[in-house]
Design goal:
Length: 183
């Protein structure tokens, strides 16, 4: 009878290690979902999928890019693309209230892709996800709506400034490369 609990424990331990081994370090994090008590388990949600990660802000001249990001997401989501928006006040243009942030994203721009609660994306306070993005790309976000394209293995394959719109041919090409990558 004691063998069953021991076997269950062994499977839990080794199963978790196998999952961690399959999930790239970039995604081995959880972030609080915007206007929710839920968290986004990045491994569970994004492992093996191409991903566009964007730091956002509600009161920025680039905020209208939400519309283009949503269009890009809708265009490629059936092919596996995921988009993760990470609001940040690092550049002093995010709403102080997450209800306002959510309104801008969900009501004003109709965002359906994953959004986190506001996070630090630069400097010593940057969350581990962004520290890894910066490490892999060699580039920290210089402003809001900086974009990182990540392949199915969790590797940054391209990054783009805030000036690059979601329909820019270079960004589209990078997204299509990420879609074509092998898991």
């Amino acid at each position: 009878m004691r063998a069953l609990p021991v076997l269950s424990l062994a499977l839990a331990l080794f199963g978790g290690q196998a999952l961690a081994a399959e999930c790239p370090s970039l995604l081995q994090h959880q972030l609080p979902q915007l206007r929710s008590k839920e968290t986004i388990d990045l491994c569970q949600r994004f492992a093996g999928k191409p991903l566009l990660i964007v730091n956002t802000a509600s009161h920025c001249g680039f905020t209208p890019q939400f519309k283009g990001l949503e269009a890009l997401y809708k265009r490629y989501k059936e092919h596996g693309l995921e988009v993760l928006g990470v609001p940040s006040d690092d550049f002093k243009q995010e709403a102080a209230d997450t209800a306002e942030t959510a309104k801008v994203c969900y009501v004003n721009y109709g965002v359906t892709f994953a959004m986190t609660q506001p996070q630090h994306v630069t400097g010593d306070e940057a969350i581990p996800l962004y520290k890894e993005l910066i490490s892999q790309s060699g580039q920290s976000p210089r402003w809001n709506f900086y974009k990182y394209v990540v392949d199915r293995q969790g590797k940054v394959i391209a990054h783009f400034s805030s000036l690059t719109k979601p329909d820019d041919p270079d960004l589209i090409e990078a997204v299509e490369r990420a879609l074509a990558s092998k898991p």
